[in-house]
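fyi for ur records
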Amino acid sequence: ASSLKNLAGLRYSRGEFSLALPLLEGALAIMRAALPPDHPDITTCLDDLEELRGHKSDEHRPVVEEAVAAM
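which gave:
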């Protein structure tokens, strides 16, 4: 999961957002399978996803709500 998250961060820093998104979603899926739902790494990954998706639509709302619920 951390390798996928790091690769997503690299893609993000290069402006390759469409390539970063599936990597980050994959990292989150692995984390959800391996960690408890309130683990800080999941919350951080959800926050990263929210930032990546941007605030241009309601598609980020479930991610934000899940991150807040985990706090």
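The two ends are 21 Å apart (CA to CA). thats all i got for now
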